[in-house]
Amino acid sequence: MTDKFYDVVVCGAGMAGIATAYSLAIKFQKRVLLIDEGAPLSLTSDKSTECYRNWWGGPDNAMLSLMNRSISLMEEHAVKSNNSFQMRPHGYLFVTKNNNEAEQLYKQAKDAELLGIGCLREITKFSKYKLNNFESPISDQDGSDFITNKETIKTLFPYLNKDTEAILHVRRCGSLSAQQLGMHLLEKAREKSCEFQTGKFTGIETSGGKVSSVTIEQDGIENSIATDTLVLAPGPHLKNTLEKIGLDLPVLVEKHVKISLPDTLNVVPRDAPLIIWNDPIELPWTNEEKSHLAESPETEWLLKTFPPGVHGRPVGAGNQVLMYWTYDCETSTYPKFPIEWDPYLPDVTLRGMAVMVPGLEKYFDPMPRPYVDGGYYTKTEENRPLIGPLKIPGAFVCGAFSGFGIMSACGAGELLARHIANADLPDYADAFLPSRYEDPLYLEDIKKWVVDGQL
């Protein structure tokens, strides 16, 4: 065993682990050891759309409260760091050409208003719409704008499908660089009382039933680290990491893949928000292509109706456009690396986006070489995270962040640090406790939930 004692050992140097280490070191002056098998932020933290939103449904406002707190913390970091991680509050834009879906968007916005997301503004003409301030990382508006006036939609977002019937622009949302945010937090934590070591977590030792040390494997040698507090933040490896200390929680992993393409023709403006198509999609094929695809069982599925939800946004300082579509989610108990994906996925995703942004059809043939990357969402049944103490005294978890890990990390890390420091907890803390799965009434209740918040 090493002679050095750490107040807390954090297993996992993704965004959740780093944000937890930051809060422990900066806000509660804890001596923290952060461990990971690989480099910080190298597994799944850079595989998302790198966006944030306070757009969350019920049945209560727990997720909204967590996200609002996390966004506020990110805004503070952005101001203090001269926006080193490029926080841009350009919003989320939900788009439909279906009148029934337009009514649903309006209802969702009214429900969101009641939960506390902010007021719903019905924009009847262009002069009533307030443009974003792109000079500031802080959104000067919350709530949402609902627009059905076609001329106003065309003026504001001329690249959208001409048959668009309604848009809902949710304002306290945007994008950022996950890598740069994570490194900013890690650097600040290491300036205080946080250390990082490369190592593989293998288990714990206990004394009187409580955590007394953590064992990690480094260069083939197992070392014991003296500590009385362990945080598990291992991303998609949560299930098997829990098993190493004899525990289990109901989580699965879900594979997700994103693509990005060079938009050399500037089809999508660089200041565009994240745009989401809310209607089912039939991919745009020529009649000749349809006949060819229908001839083979391996390709006829490309003629089916695909689910709503394709989304994308401009990314970075160049001309890349990121595109994401969870039309074929594959769940499993454990992750498998390297990630494999359907070879048709880039073409399907581009064609889906082109239904919403027809100008992208210019890239169908030949299709620019896409960059394809993927990771795993770690999810609970009701798609809420696990933040709080485990059954073993001294052991805590910060995980199951599904597709919202980047946006929730600062708030989640702060919340877990408050658990560890026995500080006052916010009202929403109980909603994320692992112990909720021991309550049979809760298990029955979540079966009735109809909204899981995933795009």
Layout of helices and strands:
Layout: E1 5-6, E2 8-11, H1 15-27, E3 32-36, E4 51-53, H2 62-80, E5 92-96, H3 99-115, E6 120-123, E7 144-147, H4 150-156, E8 166-170, E9 173-175, H5 178-191, E10 194-198, E11 200-207, E12 210-218, E13 221-227, E14 230-232, H6 238-243, E15 251-262, E16 274-277, E17 281-282, H7 287-294, E18 305-306, E19 311-315, E20 320-324, E21 330-332, H8 345-356, E22 371-380, E23 386-389, E24 395-399, H9 405-420, H10 440-445
Features:
D-Amino Acid Oxidase, Chain A, domain 2, globular, 26% helix, 2 domains, alpha/beta, 455 residues, six-stranded mixed beta sheet
Plain-language structure description:
Helices cover 26% and strands 26% of the residues. It contains 10 helices and 24 strands. Strands 5, 6, 7, 8, 15, 16, 19, 20, 21 and 22 form a 10-stranded mixed beta sheet that branches. The protein has a 6-stranded mixed beta sheet with strand order 10-3-2-14-24-23. The radius of gyration is 23 Å and the shape is globular.
- Uncertain segments: none
User: What coarse outline follows from CA principal-axis ratios?
Assistant: globular
What's the name of the CATH homologous superfamily of the largest domain? D-Amino Acid Oxidase, subunit A, domain 2
Mean pLDDT: 96
What proportion of the residues is helical, as a percent range? 25-40%
Task: Work out the number of β strands.
Answer: 24
> CATH top level of the largest domain?
Alpha Beta
Please summarize the sheet with the most strands: 10 strands, mixed
CA gyration radius, whole angstroms: 23 Å
What is the tally of helical segments? 10
Strand content: 25-35%
Instruction: Look at the helices and sheets and give the structural class.
Output: alpha/beta
